Structure formats: C-alpha cells, structure tokens
Task: structure prediction
Amino acid sequence: MKINKMYIGIFLLLSVIEVIIALFVHDTIIRPYIGDVLIVFLMYSFIRGIVEKQLKLLPLYLFIFSTLVEIAQYFHIVKILNLQGNQFFSIIIGASFDIKDILCYLVASLILLVWERFKI
Result:
C-alpha cells in the first residue's frame, strides 16, 4: 500500500476545518450545508490517500454511503443501537434526518465526479 501524501494532507486539513465548524460555527449556512459537502470531500480524500487503485465511481459510492447514514438517522439508529449516551457516536452517526443533507452529499459527489473526469 502506497500512501498518497497530497490526499492525506487534504484529509487532515479538512478534518481540522470540520472540527472548527462543529465546535465554533453555529449559523444557518456553513455548519448545515458546507459542513455536509466537506464531509464527503473528507471521506474521498481519506480513501484516495490510502487506496492506490483508481476508483472512478468512488464519488457515487460515497453518495450512497452518506445517503444510507442519513436514512439510518431517519430510523433513529443511534437509539436502536443504544448509543445515545455516547457523544462520539452520536456526533459521527448523527441524530436527525434532513433531506437537505442528502442534497449536499449529492452536490459534493457531483463535484467529485467532475474532478475525477477532468483532473490531470
């Protein structure tokens, strides 16, 4: 396995940005929308950083995964798994369903599909 330092660097930068957003930004644009777009970029950069093989459909896979997590939120998966007392899992999995989150994941995935298509 060969680590792609550029993508790992992007992953680390996006991780810091996501933590800053989660801790300090309490608005109606950046936290709910930009944060959701960035999380798809974060997952993409992590996977691209550790997987050497070209994954042309990775943005699609990430959209499906993100949508499934959002649907799990609709069914209160945190409660079903009895994790509501665990702040880490409550934050990672999320607790509230919002269709707008799925639209943000779609936007991010479409941006990444274009990136995959035209990157040099």
Notes: The mean pLDDT is 92. The chain has six helices and no strands. The chain has one domain: 5-118.
